[in-house]
Amino acid sequence: MDGTQCDKVSVFVCGAQKSGTTSLYAHFLEHPELQSPDRKEIHFFDDEATNWAEPDYERLHDHFAGPANGRLRYDITPIYQFWPDALDRIAAYNPDAKLIFLFRDPFERALSHWAMEFARNDEHLDFRQAIRDGRERLRDLPRNAPAWRVFSYLERGLYGQQVTAALRLFSRQQLLFLRAEDLRDDHAATLEHIRLFLGISPFPDTGPKREHGRYATPGAKGAGAEDLEHVANFVAADMECFKQLSGLDISKWPTQSSTISKPVVNMIRQKDKRPNILMIVADDLNSWIGALGRHPDVRTPAIDKLAGQGTLFTKAYCAAPYCNASRMATFTACLPSTTGIYHNENFWERAQRPQTAIELLKAAGYHTFGAGKVFHGMFDYATAGRDILKRAAWNGVEERDHLWDQFTSCVAEPLPTERPLNKLHDFSKFDEVPPFYHHFDWGPLADDQEALMPDEKVCQSVSDFLLSAPDKPFFCAAGIYKPHLPWHLPRRFFDMYDKERIALPLVKDGDLDDVPDQARAWALSPRDHELVTSNGVWRDAVQGYLAAISYCDWIVGRIVQALERSGHADNTIIALWGDKGFHLGEKLHWRKFVLWEEATHVPMLIVPPKGHIAHPIAMNPLP
After folding, report:
1. Same domain, 157 and 34
2. CATH at residue 467
3. 318 CB-side CA count, 13 A
4. Which of 400, 407, 436, 572 is paired with 148 by a 20 to 30 Å CA distance?
């Protein structure tokens, strides 16, 4: 097999298992323009024994007899939509492939799945036990462990997650979402839909197919209403997401019955009682806010005012001192040990990843709006420095369109012309400047550049949204980039701090003498404190960071003012937090990336809607 594009497998029926894929296979066998494999389920892309760094696609092609000769090759392996990395592997193999998904009510699918495994003697628990305590058999197992093929009765019904993964990899035009009952009850119309999607001639009319019907009868082993309710509650939030993304009408599915108790969905559907949420996250904002009393000179009147109106968490700590890890932990309510995101690892593409709060709110009917650095992203200071550009372009690494009804990304960041302003390196020999120092700079911007700053644009976008918000509950996220480096800011914020009078952090010369070698290596890589102090710019740097905090505070104040002008303040919760802290010499360390106090202690406060009582201070550590 030569592996040319025409001989590649171009059609995949990816699931769901127990949703009519075998019946569809019977129809595919009859179509002359489809080249059938030697068996229905090839199981190539879920084979964990394959070397996926260099996959041998000939093994896949060997399942087809002779060349395709213009026919479409297909693979009907229904675990693909559920198995970790299977869709990614398909996309790497053939990014132009077309994928078909058949979805069945999660309760009926789970029961049929259980019945099949029970009949095979791979399952010995009754259905009630299997979907409750039986799920413990999957605890702590890697997602590609063999047990996930057998006992994932409930997890396979999280269709919203699976559709999200597919939409990340393929365009909507490459995906066809169908209900299992469509093929069962009106096979002719469904096959017509499929043939138009594939661009082939009509299927032969040989009547409906009924395959594996013996597994489809509810009631085995006493399954009843309590089991249906249990499954419905398990998939409730995910189903809201699935309905939105797939566009399918699933209102007649048993798990969607109005008689089923679904506390999560019932709560979030009470539209008249649901508050709006304004979330503000600041990048690298450590605990130096006035309300926490951690630095005597800092000026943060807007944040301090919010702290006085709500609950200030005095012992809030980030889950990890890295941007991506901290934000993913916050938005999923899962520690890095659960998400697997400790630094800049991939999150969105992970199979069966936890859903973010934004996805759940959107699925619940909230209008989602975001602006700025909400999820991880970065400015390209390397290219800006090397090419002597006036602006650094933004790369929204973890931004995803499916999260938002509206989103405004960061604009390019204006930069001073004579960089670096602190003169710690020579940018005329930029290739000799270590990457850590491409943005390790501070100093005032020209007056005409203030209006071009990314956080200024975020402030404007968020304010405009609040003043014209839709007539439905909304989640509005404002991602403020400062006080992240570089500290290039309007001069008036530097003028707020007399660098000769500001308090410097307490630094003990021997503070690393009693720490492990690894911690010492982290603290001194790079050797920022030695560089800063030997060049006599420590006070200048602390002034720059304090100025950046006050600039951030000024942006926060304007956003809150816009909320108050909008008329929504009486029904809006405000949450403000820093994603991680920042060292300015403590323990001879600068920046973050360590597990010490200054890198992990962050501001966090929650303000209830106006007129509601809040507890002024919360002492319990977070998370």
Report:
1. yes
2. 3.40.720.10
3. 36
4. 400
